[in-house]
Amino acid sequence: AQSVAQPEDQVNVAEGNPLTVKCTYSVSGNPYLFWYVQYPNRGLQFLLKYITGDNLVKGSYGFEAEFNKSQTSFHLKKPSALVSDSALYFCAVRDSYTGTASKLTFGTGTRLQVTL
Amino acid sequence: DGGITQSPKYLFRKEGQNVTLSCEQNLNHDAMYWYRQDPGQGLRLIYYSQIVNDFQKGDIAEGYSVSREKKESFPLTVTSAQKNPTAFYLCASSIGTGALGYTFGSGTRLTVV
């Protein structure tokens, strides 16, 4: 079975400081990893994904994530946080098997609060 | 613009009633999914469908039903058998089996009154 852990319910950071939202995963084969963001009463918006290739993935709104196979992690990062980045962030994983049985598994979400 | 439309945005249900949540996509995606979101629990899969006229139960299917008569549409019915239906419901779709990720609708908030 595949699973995702987001160990922090909330991350607080001051505007202008770097931010990290942590994600670790477990999957039987090679992972496909995703980050999504959710604003209040809205659906999830895609930020970035890792399928293969370079371990550092760049995505929307200045976010990036680093795939670390040995630590089974895919932490989300941004060099300089903005107040508008405040939202709920979800990490998701699936294995690389493309059959019908494989679906995305989501973490429980991390609330990012950026303050002035 | 292509996307997924969920309606209504807010829905109120009396106990004992069935209600149906609408999900329509014009992305020509093959697969569609229904998730339930509760605070602190992330997203839990209710049902999914890879092709028309076929669907599978997810992790929390009890008390829910779906149909997939058209590629574009995947309505979810919350039946009276669902003991705690108050939640935020999200519909998603994907190309193929979703290896490249999902596209989400804006959600329906269901409240039992």
Characterize the biggest β-sheet of chain B. Answer: 7 strands, mixed
Principal-axis shape of chain B equals globular
Question: Which regions of chain A contain 5 or more consecutive residues with pLDDT less than 50?
Answer: none
| Tally of helical segments of chain B | 0
Description of the molecule:
The complex is a heterodimer of chains A (116) and B (113). Chain A has 116 residues and is mostly beta strands. Chain A has strands at 3-5, 10-14, 19-21, 24-26, 31-38, 44-50, 56-58, 64-68, 73-78, 87-95, 105-106, 110-115. In chain A, the strands form three sheets. In chain A, strands 2, 5, 6, 10, 11 and 12 form a six-stranded mixed beta sheet that branches. Helices cover 0% and strands 52% of the residues of chain A. Chain B is mainly β and 113 residues long. Chain B contains no helices and eleven strands. Chain B has strands at 4-7, 10-13, 19-25, 31-38, 42-51, 54-57, 64-66, 76-78, 87-94, 103-104, 108-112. In chain B, strands 2, 4, 5, 6, 9, 10 and 11 form a seven-stranded mixed beta sheet that branches. In chain B, strands 1-3-8-7 form a four-stranded antiparallel beta sheet, with no helix packed on it. In chain B, a hairpin with an 8-residue loop joins strand 9 and strand 10. The N and C termini of chain B lie far apart (35 Å). The mean pLDDT of chain B is 93. The A-B interface holds A 9, 32, 34, 36, 41-46, 49, 51, 90, 92, 94, 96, 98-100, 102-104, 106-109 and B 4, 6, 9, 33, 35, 40-43, 45, 48, 50, 58, 88, 90, 92, 96-107, 109.
Brief sketch in words of this structure:
The complex is a heterodimer of chains A (116) and B (113). Chain A has strands spanning 3-5, 10-14, 19-21, 24-26, 31-38, 44-50, 56-58, 64-68, 73-78, 87-95, 105-106, 110-115.
Offer a few descriptive terms:
heterodimer; A: 116 residues; mainly beta; 4-stranded antiparallel beta sheet; 12 strands; B: 113 residues; 7-stranded mixed beta sheet
